[in-house]
Design brief:
Length: 361
């Protein structure tokens, strides 16, 4: 979405407002954005400790800090994706009359989103049902993703060093609990590569075992398996090259597979109040994904996936259902909303926004 805005407005200036915990201090400056950090740390402390007292105090102190930062920066618009940083940020924007867009990516709105929704100028959601549970007018934009339009399948496979004539499976567990995926892949790998090619995002911790599993394959089959710690920008090629995906159910995962119409074997992360299971509900009901509970996922699941990988009619039906749920225009319509807010123009009709989000053009 920021790339879309930058293409439209070469003079775009972005300041990232973050907290004192997480990867922001490394990732944000490396991406070329200015980082301002509030005093707050988190509100997720589970065990009783000093943080049980200090974290709410940090949150309270972060409100006047956010007011001072916004008054100094004088942004045209504030964009927030929820989380604990949204609380002082939206409070400050409301006090200073700075237009704001609050985006919720999960089907079940988080606590901070529910607490601050009335402070936002407008709200965008990834799932239509989420908007029905939040106050005021909401826009069904979908989840902004990387640009996946016009990516050539064969060219992507060539860049990844994969065979052009085999069905391809992409397996990635996201940032949460990839160990279960890694162990299953290593055990079922001979059955998988007998049917097609596999790209496996194993994480740093899983690379040694994945590399050993590749070396144990017959030499003629090793080129069918490509383990990687992370893919980064190569994820675009991986999605374009894949015929089937096994993954978690984060908002971005659902958005990207549906944007390109990929069938999904979805294994929701079992914690975090069931957010991921809720994210999969519509896609599973439409037939674009098959749900496997985390505790049921294992090598036998992947052996069944190997059979599905060569079942062209079943994959075609799932592909069509997945594509019907996609919102490839999400980044574009979200940028439209931000520009309208920044320019103090009337916002578009929510029906028009939802229709435009479904179009890649």
């Amino acid at each position: 979405m920021l790339r879309t805005l930058a293409q439209r407005r070469p003079d775009l200036e972005v300041t990232w407002l973050g907290g004192r915990r997480g990867l922001e201090s490394d990732v944000v400056p490396a991406a070329g954005y200015r980082l301002d950090r509030l005093w707050l740390r988190t509100l997720r402390s589970v065990d009783l400790s000093v943080a049980t007292i200090t974290d709410p105090l940090r949150l309270g102190a972060s409100v006047p800090q956010a007011v001072a930062l916004l008054a100094h920066r004088r942004p045209d618009v504030l964009y927030t994706t929820g989380g604990y940083v949204a609380i002082p940020s939206l409070a400050a924007a409301a006090l200073l009359r700075t237009p704001s867009l609050l985006w919720e990516g999960n089907r079940l709105a988080g606590r901070s989103v529910r607490a601050t929704a009335r402070l936002a100028s407008t709200i965008a959601v990834s799932y239509a049902g989420t908007g029905e549970e939040l106050p005021g007018r909401t826009f069904h934009t979908g989840t902004p993703t990387r640009d996946l339009a016009n990516v050539d399948r064969d060219a992507s496979r060539g860049r990844l060093g994969l065979p052009l004539d085999l069905p391809m499976l992409l397996v990635f567990g996201g940032s949460q609990a990839v160990r279960r995926f890694n162990e299953a892949i290593v055990t079922a790998l001979p059955d998988l590569v007998a049917r097609g090619a596999v790209i496996h995002v194993a994480g740093e911790a899983g690379m040694a075992e994945a590399t050993a599993a590749r070396a144990a394959l017959p030499e003629t089959l090793r080129d069918r398996y490509r383990p990687a710690a992370f893919l980064g920008d190569e994820m675009t090629d991986a999605l374009a090259a894949a015929d089937l995906v096994v993954g978690r159910a984060g908002s971005s995962t659902i958005a990207e597979v549906t944007a390109v119409g990929l069938p999904l074997i979805v294994v929701p992360y079992p914690h975090a109040a069931g957010h991921q299971r809720a994210n999969t509900r519509d896609l599973v009901a439409a037939g674009g994904a098959r749900l496997v509970a985390d505790e049921d996922f294992g090598p036998d699941t992947l052996r069944e996936v190997a059979d599905l990988l060569v079942d062209r009619p079943a994959l075609d039906a799932m592909r069509a259902a997945s594509r019907s749920m996609g919102r490839p225009g999400a980044a574009r319509v979200t940028a439209d909303l931000l520009e309208a807010l920044a320019d103090r123009r009337p916002l578009p009709d929510p029906v028009d926004v939802a229709a435009a989000a479904r179009s890649a053009a």
